[in-house]
Specification:
The protein is α+β, with helices and mostly antiparallel strands and about 180 residues long. Helix content is about 25%, strand content about 30%. Strands 1, 2, 3, 5 and 8 form a five-stranded mixed β-sheet that branches. β2 and β3 form a beta hairpin.
Length: about 180
């Protein structure tokens, strides 16, 4: 018998205290894990926006892959300043360009694993296009839409965008500097 096992036989209160302390630590660990999981879910969701930690603007998270954006359709409900955080999850360089309703803003090309931000002032209801301006990426499907408001009714968002978004307006963003 060890000296410590003898203590439990002599003092059952000490054993109960150790058990209670172990349970407290387990509960604290579970609460910490729940807090971390909740914090990870608080960034807005796919296609949604959240309030930025810097104050007045709103943030949008966007992931670039080879050759798509996630989400590819973003719906916002109000005008304002939006900061789009682009994370390159692909295996090649990507960038982001947003245009429409008088806006044309873009980022520099970022390497795989890097993140960049683009802040745009959305002031008019309607649809804005976003795409990767790196040579050929938009033609391979790396594009999406950001819509302020209802988006113009029902039924038109699935099939009409192919004809108006890609094939008109002057060639995939080239030459606009």
């Amino acid at each position: 018998m060890t000296p410590f096992s003898r203590i439990n036989e002599v003092n059952p209160i000490a054993s109960a205290r150790r058990m209670l302390e172990g349970m407290r630590l387990a509960v604290a660990g579970v609460l910490a894990l729940v807090g971390l999981l909740a914090a990870g879910c608080g960034s807005g969701g796919v296609g949604q926006t959240g309030t930025s930690a810097t104050g007045g603007g709103k943030s949008i998270s966007l992931a670039a892959a080879d050759f798509s954006f996630d989400p590819s359709k973003i719906q916002i409900d109000q005008t304002g300043t939006y900061t789009i955080q682009l994370t390159n999850n692909g295996g090649t360089g990507h960038a982001l360009e947003v245009e429409g309703q008088g806006i044309e803003e873009k980022t520099d090309t970022i390497n795989p694993g890097d993140t960049t931000q683009l802040t745009v002032e959305i002031t008019k209801p309607g649809t804005y296009e976003f795409y990767c301006p790196v040579d050929g990426h938009r033609a391979q499907g790396m594009e999406g839409t950001l819509t302020l408001g209802s988006g113009g009714g029902s039924g038109g968002t699935g099939t009409d965008t192919g004809g108006s978004g890609t094939n008109t307006g002057g060639g995939y963003g080239y030459g606009s500097g």
